[in-house]
Amino acid sequence: MATNSSNGEQPTSSKPPPLPSPLRFSKYFQANTRILVTGGAGFIGSHLVDKLMENEKNEVIVVDNFFTGSKDNLKKWIDHPRFELIRHDITQPFLVEVDKIYHLACPASPIFYKYNPVKTIKTNVIGTLNMLGLAKRVGARILLTSTSEVYGDPLTHPQPETYWGNVNPIGVRSCYDEGKRVAETLMYDYHRQHGIEIRIARIFNTYGPRMNIDDGRVVSNFIAQALRGEPLTVQKPGTQTRSFCYVSDMVDGLICLMEGKNTGPINIGNPGEFTMVELAKTVKELINPEVEINMVDNTPDDPRQRKPDITKAKELLDWQPRVTLRDGLPLMEEDFRTRLGISKR
Ligand SMILES: NC(=O)c1ccc[n+]([C@@H]2O[C@H](COP(=O)([O-])OP(=O)(O)OC[C@H]3O[C@@H](n4cnc5c(N)ncnc54)[C@H](O)[C@@H]3O)[C@@H](O)[C@H]2O)c1
Ligand SMILES: O=C(O)[C@H]1O[C@H](OP(=O)(O)OP(=O)(O)OC[C@H]2O[C@@H](n3ccc(=O)[nH]c3=O)[C@H](O)[C@@H]2O)[C@H](O)[C@@H](O)[C@@H]1O
């Protein structure tokens, strides 16, 4: 399959990363690993926090402006001695002594990122600059959660990391997909110019418990609709495809990337590919066979196909997803039933 770059490897930096505080090397300094998670009150971020908190050597600091995230997602950690939650908007500078930064803050559902596109692009560009500035100042390693949307409406299928994408620079999705492309550029420029240790994950559609019920993304929409007995809204033509990754697999992939030696970008996703009609039929079969499936209008620039090539993740991170869509949907159904107060008949 044709790709735009010869081997996909980007020139990396030979500069040593900036040094953290001299105290970190002191014999009597007993501190834990301090980890900042931006956007940690959101869907993926809160699951990542749960996993990081399992390690007693980790201290986790979350910054979030609660635009799409919620304190509820982190309620079990409030008042825990190794946990701090800070309300902060990352488009403003933020200074803190940390060793690692998982940089997730950004609305991810198309409905929310299109709601205030100027704010979305500021979050991606100024927010990422602020986090890179912090990484440079304190010598932290930083991981960016980029997206498969950097491939736009892909002309290569499945998408390897070497594919440069087919993105509309002035469309209604550009605040997000072009924003993430600039964020990736900034990561590499800080790496080459200042020696910052970077990691870039290109995440493909992820689903699971704690997604906002009215998040607007397809899996949460279909599950909420099926439980409420409303028709499933398949946006036309319905033949467009996505590949859905369960959130626990995603979190494992992100941690493998952060802890490994590879800068990325690396695709993290589940290659199981479904059309939206197939997804609707599966949700109907598993959750509510009575429900109707309605075809409704789509939004502009909707990518027609998307499936990750995860060869790199398998080889370099020894990671691959384990949870199939049929196993993951019932886990999400259970969470949605609890939150909607709809018990199983
Ligand atoms: N879920 C997916 O399928 C998917 C796919 C590709 C990439 N990603 C990326 O993963 C990350 C997390 O996605 P998610 O699905 O958990 O979304 P989410 O909307 O649930 O979480 C995003 C979090 O960032 C916070 N946030 C947004 N703007 C902020 C700002 N300016 N300052 C501080 N906090 C801010 C929100 O309040 C929220 O808690 C995002 O960067 C997204 O682009 C997600
Ligand atoms: O994984 C990614 O890279 C990106 O995926 C998503 O983008 P998208 O795939 O468009 O997500 P959805 O809004 O869930 O839409 C998926 C498909 O379902 C369709 N859809 C959506 C909602 C709905 O009710 N019905 C429906 O058929 C859409 O037309 C689209 O074809 C979000 O932009 C980001 O979370 C993420 O960065």
Structure characteristics:
NAD(P)-bd_dom_sf, binds uridine-5'-diphosphate-glucuronic acid, seven-stranded parallel sheet, 9 helices, alpha/beta, Rossmann fold, NAD(P)-bd_dom, NAD, EC 4.1.1.35, binds nicotinamide-adenine-dinucleotide, lyase
Bound molecules: nicotinamide-adenine-dinucleotide, uridine-5'-diphosphate-glucuronic acid
Q: How much helix, percentage-wise, in residues?
A: 25-40%
Amount of beta strand:
15-25%
CATH architecture of the domain at 32-207 and 245-268: 3-Layer(aba) Sandwich
Structural class: alpha/beta
Uncertain residue segments: none
What's the tally of helices?
9
Top-tier CATH class of the domain at 32-207 and 245-268: Alpha Beta
Report, as a whole number of angstroms, the end-to-end distance: 49 Å
Enumerate the strands of the largest sheet in spatial order, edge to edge or round the barrel. 3-2-1-4-5-6-11
Give me the Rg, rounded: 20 Å
CATH superfamily of the domain at 32-207 and 245-268: NAD(P)-binding Rossmann-like Domain
Provide the residue-averaged pLDDT.
93
* Overall outline: globular
CATH topology of the domain at 32-207 and 245-268: Rossmann fold
Largest sheet: 7 strands, parallel
SSE order: EHEEEHHEHEEHEEEHEEHEHH
How many strand units?
13
Family: Belongs to the NAD(P)-dependent epimerase/dehydratase family. UDP-glucuronic acid decarboxylase subfamily.
Organism: Hibiscus sabdariffa
Protein name: UDP-glucuronate decarboxylase
InterPro entries: NAD(P)-bd_dom, NAD(P)-bd_dom_sf, UXS-like
